[in-house]
């Protein structure tokens, strides 16, 4: 190919993802605070677990949707399907990658409408712990700054951020979450491509297998963890020991990956010479 591509479509995708991130980010921190403030203390772990479980279902359906779109030719609706002479197994095949953005955008818009009908405040349960606000004040503190100017806001934000990062337990939890998510995101990102190259699978089938086998167990584990915490009414120390035990077992089981795999595929120009 002598002529370089001149399409600037990537700019629209970049702006779309940025707007999507702005809209989705408040759901996790504010949603968890909302649940914690207006739910009974023993029910909060189950509600938070349900929130994260549903969040894991999103990528699963995303992979399934990607699998469906990958089976359709990129110009679906604009060309005659009978005129297409290649199949999804062909290396020249390009799936309808753009169709998932339209379906996902419409679903996000419709799912955001019910948020407009949420009440501004709810009646707190009588069993709520009176010191709950003081324990979680670093999380909800920025809400009191929404009417201030930019400079005071930044000053107060830096103060709140310093207090939060100065909490040793929270900082350690942040580091653990960062390490766990880094490995998991790397798995989701490169596993489909590995299946395509190593096992000769199509893009559609690789996404389907990842969506059906990888994400549902994670969502189920999050939900069961919330139920266990509710049943045994774990304290902060008990929840920490429970988390450590489960993470350590997962770490040991992960060693089994070293014994599973295939030889590297022979690729001319990469693993062997062209001759």
UniProtKB/TrEMBL annotation:
InterPro entries: MFS_trans_sf (IPR036259), OATP (IPR004156). One of its GO terms (molecular function) is sodium-independent organic anion transmembrane transporter activity. Coiled coil: none annotated. Pfam families: OATP (PF03137). One of its GO terms (cellular component) is basolateral plasma membrane. The gene is Slco1c1_1. The chain crosses the membrane at residues 46-74, 94-118, 169-188, 208-228, 248-272. The keyword Cytoplasm does not apply. Signal peptide: none annotated. Keywords: Disulfide bond, Ion transport, Membrane, Transmembrane, Transmembrane helix, Transport. The keyword Ion transport applies. It is a multi-pass membrane protein. This is Solute carrier organic anion transporter family member. Belongs to the organo anion transporter (TC 2.A.60) family. Its main location: membrane. One of its GO terms (biological process) is sodium-independent organic anion transport. It is found in: Cell membrane; Membrane. It comes from Cnemophilus loriae.
